[in-house]
Amino acid sequence: MLKIDQLELGPVQTNCYIVSNSDKDCLIFDPGEESERIVALLQKKSLNPLAILLTHAHFDHIGAVDDLRERYSIPVYLHYLEREWLGLPNLNGSGKYAMLPDYRIKEADVLLNEERVLQIGPFEMELFHTPGHSPGSVSYSFGTEGFAVVGDTLFRGSIGRTDLIDGSEQKLLQSIRESLLTLPEQMVLFPGHGPDTTPQAEIAGNPFLKNL
User: Fold this and answer.
1) Alpha-carbon span 80 to 131, nearest angstrom
2) Metallo-beta-lactamase domain location, by residue (predicted)?
3) Which residue among 11, 58, 77, 127 has the highest number of C-beta atoms inside a 10 angstrom radius?
4) What is the distance between the alpha carbons of residues 20 and 39, in angstroms, rounded to a whole number?
5) What is the pLDDT of residues 154-195, one digit of tens each?
6) Cβ contact 76:110 at 8 Å
7) Looking at residue 52, which CATH number applies to its domain?
């Protein structure tokens, strides 16, 4: 059975998830900022990170990527449609806010380009392309473990914003309908911000999905 640790990081409290197994291997999802807090958790639990996986390349999900990649010599996974976003503040959104530094992250090591079963060491997950919040948004489903990491596509009682570069409400709702709401009703969905939820809960009570 896999274990999930959650940290709320950075200026907008982005959820970073550490998924680990009994052998102490782990994957890091969306290390948005505060690399020292992530390192402290890894050290406390004696975890060995194998990779960094990004649900998308907005600034609040990528701030600690280079620190962790260099410290642990691990690859970064990102959808190919956002391959240029890591290094361009006008695309990753950091250039939009005067109070933030420009986020310029090195290129991803592995570009994801199709929906498939993704194997990283002992970890196996199903990759879904879930655009709408951003063109390269993806979700990672650990079906046999009963959870998925869904980024900013779907939140408890809400959905991702679509007013950023290349966002699309139509595509977002299609992604939610076809990729997330079709998952098992009780599967735990871990979003990029806020508390977790399930497809059943969102079908029953999310006001943005009442017409789906």
Assistant:
1) 12
2) 13-193
3) 58
4) 14
5) 999 999 999 999 999 999 999 999 999 999 999 999 999 999
6) yes
7) 3.60.15.10
